[in-house]
Amino acid sequence: MYRIFVVCYLASLLVACGVPSAQQPDWEKASLACADVGIAPGGGGFDQCVFNLYYSLWDIQNDRDN
């Protein structure tokens, strides 16, 4: 549980600081998708939605078992 909290905190910190990265457009798309389903931006639930969506899609795109 502690590890999840630390990862979420660091991810939100990087997003808040505006650190440019290759994944930033995908992170923004995940943010738009969470907002589109009605989750209010700025809350912990929104941040968790973006985090979960981004990394779930990343896992699917980078699945090396296939």
Q: What is the secondary structure topology, with strand pairs?
A:
Layout (H helix, E strand, L loop, with lengths): L1 H16 L6 H13 L7 H18 L5
What features would you describe in this structure?
With 66 residues, this protein is mainly α. The chain is 71% helix and 0% strand. The longest helix is centred in the C-terminal third of the chain and has 18 residues. It is globular. 8% of the residues are buried. The mean pLDDT is 77.
Task: Report a brief summary of the structure.
With about 70 residues, the protein is mostly helical. It is built from 3 helices and no strands.
Key phrases:
66 residues, mainly alpha, single chain
- Compute the number of structural domains: 1
Indicate the structural class.
mainly alpha
What level of helicity do the residues show? over 70%
Over all CA atoms, what is the radius of gyration? 12 Å
* Strand portion: under 5%
Which residues form runs of ≥5 with pLDDT under 50?
none
Query: Care to count the β-strands?
Result: 0
Distance separating the two termini: 30 Å
Averaged pLDDT: 77
Tally of helical runs: 3
The geometry reads as globular
H/E order of the elements? HHH
Let me know the largest β-sheet. Answer: none
